[in-house]
Amino acid sequence: MSVVRLEGVGKSFLRRDGEQLEVLRNINLEVSERSIVALVGASGCGKSTLLNIIAGLAEPDQGAVYLNDMRSSAFKDWRSMTYMFQEDRLFPWRTTAQNVAFGLEAAGVARGERRERVMKVLELVGLDTFADSFPHELSGGMRSRAALARSLVTEPTILLMDEPFSKLDPSIRASMHDEVLRIAALKQMAVIFVTHDVEEAVVLANKIVVLHPRPGRVRETREVALPYPRNPLSPEVAEEVRLLRLSL
Amino acid sequence: MKRSPFQMAQDRRLRLISLRLLLLVIVLVIWQIGSLGAPPFILPSPARTGSAWADLVVTSGFWADFGITFYRIVVGFALAALVGAAMGLVLGASRTLGEFFEPVLVVVNTVSSSIWAIFALIWFGLSNWSTIFVVFMTAMPLILTNVWQGTRTVNREFVELAQTFRMSKPKVLWKIYLPTILPLFFAGARLAFGFGARVSIVAETLGASSGIGYRLRQAADLVQTDQVFAWTLTLVALMIALEAIVLKPLERHLFSWRERPSA
C-alpha cells in the first residue's frame, strides 16, 4: 500500500499580469509506508506547491492525488497528516504546552487527554521542562522542537515538512535530523520533506525526488540504501551527495 | 553587601512613592500660595477645598450623583465596546463592507462631543440616555477603529497552520483572531473609557438633572468654587482608582505572556 501517490499532477497559477504560469507538470510520485522521501530542487521548481497539493491546501489542475489508495477528494482522515512549516509558527501568547496542544484542540480532544498527550510528546522531544515557557523564552532549536512536537502530538501517519530546519544552526540542525529519524522509526510515520540542502536529503531520506524548475517536473528518483544513522562526513554519504549534486 | 533582586525592587518602589509624594507636596504648596492672593470664589485654598469635600462626601446626594454618573459612563462604554468590537470584526472580515463604511467612520470622528451632547438633548431630553448616547458616540468609533485595524494584523501563517489541522472557522476566530486583536481592543477600550468619562461630564452639564456634571454646573452658577474643586477632585480620584484597581491588573493578567523576562 502506498501512503501517498501522485499521478500526472499539474498545476498552473494565474500571474498578476494575466499570464498563466505553469508551476508543476506531470508529477508522478509514490510514497510507501514508513518511508522518508525528500523533494529536492532549485527554488522555483514548485516544491512547496507540491507539498501543499499533497496536504490538500491546493487543488491540482491535472492528475490525481491518492492518500492511502483513496482519491484525496474522498479522503476523510486529514488529521492523520500534519504539516511542519519553514517557520515554527508558534503563537506568542501560548506556552509551549498550549502551542503543542493546538492540533488536539482542532480535533476536539478533551482537556485531560490533551494534557497527557502533550506531556508525553514534550518528553519525546526533550522539552518537558519547558512546558510552561513562552516562545520568546526558547532558543531557536527549542522552538523547532516545539513545532515538531505540535506536528507529532496528533499521532500522524504522514508528516510533511517544508524546509523545517533551514533557519537553524548546522549543529542544531544535525540534532534535529537525529530526532526526526528516531521519532519516524518509533512512530512508524511516512515523512515527506522539501529541502534545497542536498546533504540534508541524503542524511534523512531513503528516496530522493529531484525536481527541475520552470515548469517543475521530476528529473530523477534516487533510492538511497545506506544504513542509518548516516554520518555526513563518511565517504559513502559524501559520494551520494556528489552524485545528487550532479543530477541537480 | 550585595542587595537581593527583591530588595532592589523594593528600593525602586520606595523611590517612586517618594517622588510621587514630593510632586503632590509641590502642587499643594503652589496652590496654597496662589490662593493667598485671590478671593476664595476665584481660587479656594487646599484646606477650604478639603473641608468642602469632607462636607460633600457625607451628604446622601453625593453618592447618588456619583453613582448615576458612574452608571451612565459604564452603560455607554459597555454598549460602545459591544457594538464597536462586533462592527470592527465585521468590517475587518469583509473588504467590501470596510471600504463602503469607511467614510461614515470619518464623519463620526469629526463631530465634536459637544455637538453630540446638543443632539442628545434634542432627541432624549433630560434623561440618562442623553449622557449614555454621548459617551457611546465618543467611545464607539475609537474601539471600532482599533478592532478593525486589529483584524488586519492577524497573521496569515497562523491561519494556514490552523487549516493544516482542519480547524473549524469559529475555533479559528476564537483561538487566533481574538488573541491577536485583544491588545489593540484593550488599548482602544482604555482610551475610549477615558474620553467617555470626560465627555459624560459635558453631557451632564447640558442634558441632565443629576450627576457630577449637573452638580458642577450648579455649583458654578452659585459661585461655590470650593464645591467645583471638590467635585473635580472626586472625578480625578475616580479615574485614578479605576486605572489602578481595574485596568492595570486586568492588562497585566491578559498580557502576561509579554511581560515575563526572558530566561
Describe the fold and architecture:
Chain A has 248 residues and is an alpha/beta fold. Chain A has eight helices and ten strands. In chain A, strands 6-7-8-3-9-10 form a six-stranded mixed beta sheet, sandwiched between helices. In chain A, strands 2-1-4-5 form a four-stranded antiparallel beta sheet, with helices on one face. In chain A, strand 7, helix 6 and strand 8 form a beta-alpha-beta unit. Chain A is globular and about 45 Å long. Chain A starts with a strand and ends with a helix. The mean pLDDT of chain A is 86. By secondary structure, chain B is mainly α. In chain B, 85% of the residues lie in helices and 0% in strands. Chain B is built from eleven helices and no strands. In chain B, helix 5 crosses helix 6 and helix 8 packs parallel to helix 9. Chain B is flat, with a radius of gyration of 23 Å. Chain B starts with a helix and ends with a helix. Chains A and B meet through helix 3 of A and helix 7 and helix 8 of B.
Major sheet summary line of chain A: 6 strands, mixed
Tally the helices of chain A: what do you get? 8
What is the number of helices of chain B? 11
Beta content of chain B: under 5%
Helix content of chain A: 25-40%
For the residues shown, what is the average pLDDT of chain B?
A: 87
pLDDT averaged over residues of chain A: 86
- Which of globular, elongated, flat, extended, rod-shaped describes the shape of chain A? globular
Structural classification of chain A: alpha/beta
